[in-house]
Amino acid sequence: MQVSIEDVSPVEKKMSVEIPWDTVSEKLGNAYRELGKGVALKGFRKGKVPRPVLEQVYGQRVNYEVANELVNESFYAANQQHNLAAVAPPRVSEATPIKKGFPFTFKAIIEVRGEVVPQDFKGLPIERRTLAIPESAVDEALATLRREHTELKPIEGRETTQLGDIVGLSVTGTIGEHQINQPEFAVDLEDGEREPLPGMAVALTGIAIDTKDKVLEFDVPADHKDEQLKGRHATLTISILEVRAKDVPALDDEFAKDTGKAETLDGLKAALRKDLEDREQAVIDREARENVLRELIKKNQIPVASSLVERAVEMQYQRLRQMLGMKPDKNDRNAGLTDDLREKLRPAGTDEVRGQLLLEAIADKENVAVTDEEIGAHVEITAKGRNMPPAKLRAEWQRDGRLDNVVYSLRQDKVLRFLVDSAQITDVEKLTQQGTPLPEAPTGHEAHEHEHVHGPDCDH
Question: Is residue 119 situated within a structural domain?
């Protein structure tokens, strides 16, 4: 087999191949022998059809299959021999038909990673938000915790509803042209911000606990947030099913102890502030990594293979579907991914691939590696979230081939942290630019399709 490789672009090569007739003939012989084992034609016993007859009936199909096999074998051999770092199957641009006694020749375009030499990746200028948790956020967290520890008790000693009750009711009627039929519905008479309709909590306050078939009429305000309801006249018939009174705990040291978070109320507030600060710091750190990735890409506009971009576009589309709560199409994972949508997603997909290749190159250049301790910590955190033993999760990832992808993601995240540590950081109250989004680190079944740059040279 004769193979020649020439550069077309930094991410494309042209492969010209000539395969001698002896090799082609051997492939054809094998193909016809396999075909003959299962073919039954009129006038011949199964497995006894002569090859000339098979060639007459199936020649075109066999030639096509053999040509594909020769192209693929040549491609993988050339990829290994010439270290092409191919990222997709070859695109055949020219091919001679298989003809007895003649070599089979073809030309194909091969997309490759290309050489990635990152420039100016240290000292990247980025913004980072300062950590600032207002006291009002702590108060809201305390109020939320208090609501979570509030008990609902049966009504005793009174016959009418009052502020603070939770009313369970059935509702029928109309709001404008819309029919309403809710057999079970709950309204917090104290929570005006979350009431189903403006004025409903007020209308249900002070009425008999055993109210049945009571008609309520009111107009939904013209500035109501729901476009389908605002400005409509409501006529509703309600029947109370149950009323419960809220037993709200006092904000004192006993409440703090009941939460299990602190021994005193001041200690509880401090613990809640610490939780808020930890969560906000995680967001700030992620923003910094996104910002440093954006700056890295801006300074390194390396060319990327189109097949990698298309793969990234499809992954972006799948993430978008998940965010919108759309179920995957079993027959077509990319159902709904129109040409227009592809075009809109392509710039971000290009930068996503570009960023991954740059981070991988920097990791190699700076000898960034993920330690066993770091892998173990990640496995332990994930296993804890799933309520399963870490050893079992790690064995599952290794068995299914996911662990390599998890390590790959951890390595890229480690490079981003390295870049942030070496960046020129300006602390700001509010970011002025949006960073490049980072894919979530794979922690489950999604790990084996993480946005890794796969290809024939891939180890996994």
Answer: no
Count up the domains in the chain and report the number: 3
Q: Tens of pLDDT along 431-444?
A: 998 888 886 544 44
Beta bridge partners of 108: 15, 92
CA dihedral for 90, 91, 94, 96, sign (positive or negative): positive
Q: How far is CA 159 from CA 155, 201, 205, 216, in A?
A: 8, 17, 12, 20
Q: What is the largest CA-CA distance in the chain?
A: 104
Query: Are 292 and 362 a contacting pair, CB within 8 Å?
Result: no
Measure the CA–CA gap between 457 and 116, rounded to whole angstroms: 16
Q: What is the mean pLDDT for each group of 10 consecutive residues in the chain (460 residues)? A: 90 93 93 86 81 89 94 91 89 92 94 92 95 95 92 89 90 89 88 78 89 88 81 89 91 94 95 96 95 95 92 88 78 81 91 94 95 94 92 92 92 95 95 81 40 39
Is 15 a member of any domain?
yes
| In contact, 290 and 438? CB cutoff 8 Å | yes
In a domain, 385, yes or no: yes
Give residues with Cβ within 8 angstroms of 192, minimum separation 6. Answer: 201
Backbone angles phi, psi at 442, to 5 degrees: -70, 135
Q: Are 291 and 431 in contact (CB under 8 A)?
A: yes
Q: Let me know: does 243 contact 197? Beta carbons within 8 Å.
A: no
Residue at which a domain ends, from 196, 212, 247:
247
For residues 228 and 231, give the distance between their C-alpha atoms in angstroms, rounded to a whole number: 9
Q: Domain range holding 271?
A: 265-449
Given the DSSP bridges, would you call strands 104-111 and 12-19 parallel, antiparallel or unpaired?
antiparallel
Are 161 and 269 contained in the same domain?
Answer: no
Q: Which two tokens mark 369?
A: 């590696």
